[in-house]
Amino acid sequence: MSWRGTLAVLAAALLLAACSNRPDTPDERAAMLAPHIDVLMPEGADGPVPAVLMFSGCGGVISVQNDYAAIANEMGVAAVIVDSHAARGIGRMGARLTVCTAARMRGDARAGDVVAALAHARSLPGIDASRLALIGWSHGGWSLLDALTFAADGTPPEGLDRMPGDALAGVRSVILVYPWCGFLSRAHGHDLPGEPPVFALLAGDDVIASPEACGNLFAEQNAAGARVDWQVLDGVTHAFDAPEEPFDPRIRHDEEGTAYAHGWFAGRLAEDLLDATH
Hints:
41% helix
């Protein structure tokens, strides 16, 4: 190959790399996610129904999301399970090695999934776009907090080319279950919006996602004008509501804690999505 040919190949490779690393538009991110979004509708749904969008922990979608989805469906609420991992080809082992170690798909990058998934949900004919809630576990909670800060200041999340002005349209509440509030969270140093309100359930014996770190962060955010309500469930660990989590001495399934979390979640849906006075 001539030197001109070599330069042409190199230029093409550099152009391809540049294109592959360019930010997504919100529509492109939604198209990437769409095949990996599971929409579970309530049985016998007649007309548009409210929906709760679900974002798993760092290990990916597991039975926990289906457990909460069943609760939502029984109440007449659609469950929209967003599998950010599958959309990127991240399997269970890859998730443990890269996502759970913050080497890949941190909260600021996954925040773009929140924005895109909301736009996708609002486009579905069976969903009432004016009655939406978000729930995230652990890494999913981190992602939701980051998404809220991006929406508050109009900055596009990592990997998106812009932040739509209606990014949080229809969202009535944000629900966090043992969210990760560590130093990488964008919520340190960036304000949450005054709306929608945030509700968090923290695990008292959590050594993975510190309840103290979250409590301090939430207190700071409330002082700045956010609306965060949180409570600490004593005696439970991280992922206490996940019966099939792999062996980890830091994690312990707790049936009573799980029942409490399920009831707390149902109460939030009833008040935030089903109360006619809301």
